[in-house]
Amino acid sequence: xxxxxxxxxxxxSPGTTYAITALKxxxxxxxxxxxxxxxxxxxxxxxTLIQHLNALIRPTEGEILYHGKNIWDEDYDRxxxxxxxxxxFQYPExxxxxxxxxxxxxxxxxxxGLSREQAEVEARKALASVGLKEKHFKKxxxxxxxxxxxxxxxxxxxxxxxxxxxxxxxTAGLDPRGxxxxxxxxxxxxxxxxxxxxxxxxxxxxxxxxxxxxxVMNHGEVAYDGTPREVFQNYRELEAMGLAxxxxxxxxxxxxxRGLNVDVNASTVEEAKESILxxxxxxxxxxxxKAVSAEKKQDPLSARSExxxxxxxxxxxx
Amino acid sequence: MGIIKALKLCFEYQRYDDEGNxxxxxxxxxxxxxxxxxxxxxxxxxxxxxxxxTLAKHMNAxxxxxxxxxxxxxxxxxxxxxxxxxxxxxxxxFQNPDNxxxxxxxxxxxxxxxxxxGLPTEKIWKRVDxxxxxxxxxxxxSHxxxxxxxxxxxxxxxxGVMAxxxxxxxxxxxTAMLDPNGRVEVLKxxxxxxxxxxxxxILITHYMEEVTDADRVFVMDSGHIxxxxxxxxxxxxxEKLKEYRLDVPQVTELAHELRLSxxxxxxxxxxxxxxxxxxxx
Amino acid sequence: xxxxxxxxxxxxxxxxxxGLDPRTKLFGVxxxxxxxxxxxxxxxYLVATxxxxxxxxxxxxxxxxxxxxxxxxLFILALTMVFNVLLTPGEILWQWKFLRITREGLVLAAKMxxxxxxxxxxxxxxxxxxxxxxxxSGMERAFRPLxxxxxxxxxxxxxxxxxxxxxxxxxxxxxxxxxxxxARGADFETGNIIQKAxxxxxxxxxxxxxxxxxxxxxxxxxxxRCYHGGDERxxxxxxxxxxxxxxxxxxxxxxxxxxxxxxxxxx
Lengths: 318, 281, 267
Fold this sequence. Notes:
A: 10 strands, C: mainly alpha
């Protein structure tokens, strides 16, 4: 059960002088259940990529398989695909159009052929799972705050009961709390409702915190594909692409450079904190600490396993 | 005497029901006192709907106070008969890069302001040339704005404001719609103007990392200024900021977490170097 | 389809025509349009053709690019030709049941086609060689006398140039909203006309809201930059006639005189 891209190439206005190849020979598999993060600077092809996943764009070359079936086969039901692979565009609040929140969220399910009553059941469920309170349901979408509008729009896609939820920068324009709330809600959908998530973001920090797999797009190609920790090890290369690793990676490198025995791949505040606390403990226990740092000078390559050993030794002493 | 001075500034607006009767009155800005010295780099933080945009719009007389006063470079916005004198002194850059560029060619857009204040043609050209140079956009002068990146568009908007030779420039979430590179680009342009040209900057933002270099930070919540101080003073109050739906830079957050776990480092650490210095003594 | 419309599009190049004052070019298009209707004979059309070919050669825009502007009018062109050929009475050349082709019909259809094609190409050359801004400021100056009659000439010109700037932005936005609604299962293609119109609501409502929001933002940005109408406003690029324009005016007047001469003498 997955979405699979095979040798997908996409060219805008092919055959003209304006032709731009946005995607070059992409091979990618997104199994169900993943929380996938996609990062890339503007123009790297990430928006084009996600529009391929629910058949909004037809690849110039290559094929896209959903559960093993080519979605561009003549008799393939692409409307059904779009309800299974839900796509939330950037600034989704700009697509709201109904008189009240509930009706707007009903739009998707009713397009699937549900009656208004059945659609409302789905809409209420969806609104509840994005954390919008009942008292807002009959309001005009335009009376809501920015964060609430975004949640309404996400609910609009969610109400179609998708198996995959693709979100293009869902936090754009929100204040810090609003950003956290939306991302926590998405993490909840992944965890509690088992929806596979594809999150396009500019924030390395957010990806580090939430995603289990990270794809870096550059010039229409997949430059990196792995766990966030693996990908962030290439932070120098990421910088060359006009991207950057999360702040924490830099801090950990700085600390490590100054002789503190920390895990340089820690990418979230939580991981960094644990690693620094362990390293400090190790430093405080004079005998063990000195021994480790002396050894470290001899063999810098094995620093990581020593960090673990040192941490364990520190704990024993306490 | 500050370049921007607000005294008990209030701004109320009415909400109407379907029949056009006044439903309720909301105070977007409530009893705000401000005194900003020339040449400073000021940051205003606050969640969506905290009143910071409304306050910004008072600074170049796009809105007039319902109570209290605001004085820009010695001119009271309520008394001044020619508002465009104030608007020359205090230029404004908005959030959406597409919705504030008027010209179909970069240089023509930069010349829009000087045209409006009736400068002779040669002077307009001189100002356009110097503004484009100050914002590093000279190479793009004959481009169409539609073909530029978000960061470049915002620099065009800044150049357009600079062509009025303002003493102060107010930026209302100029980076909210940009990608990280665009944000860096715009912030660098703004810092350069502040440092090299001595322009007073008032930067309104949601991004905590953008304010660590500011001279002074104001935090707004429900129309009030609730915190005021240097970035270090502000960011040392992590819990309080979170109450106002804000955050702290990640370095500060890490330092704060470490402190809570008993590590002996000071509050309000702002940079990686400071943290490394405190941890690796 | 949208990309095929060359009327209203600017093609950047450095040519004699690009360098002319927009007022001269406006006058040129006016003269050309008049001439197309003043000429009535094929020798006359030959003169117009020579003039047009000359302009195409001078403007340095690839002819294929200019002719692409004809694509959207091909249907109208074909329709008028068919009507003219079949419905004009006169000397019958061919007949099948009630359909007949007359010599007069053929001549009339050919003339109509020439006029229509020349009009489109002539005005395309104007917009291809003139930036929207130059065009509006040219119109603003040309219509300035109307100010006395309290026609807000500057404001109309400003509105036109803003509209031109926002067309590509709104087209992009339309595409985006459309895709967003398709992703929610919307259907813009099937159904009868009433259903189709109904299905457009989820596209049109957000589009209007967005256009209003942009208009509001833009008005505020313009006000913040001291815009207060056309009074006391100066121009960064004021229009000044040069020697080239004077020569162009002479050529245009000579061409107009020739057209009138052809008409009077009946050539």
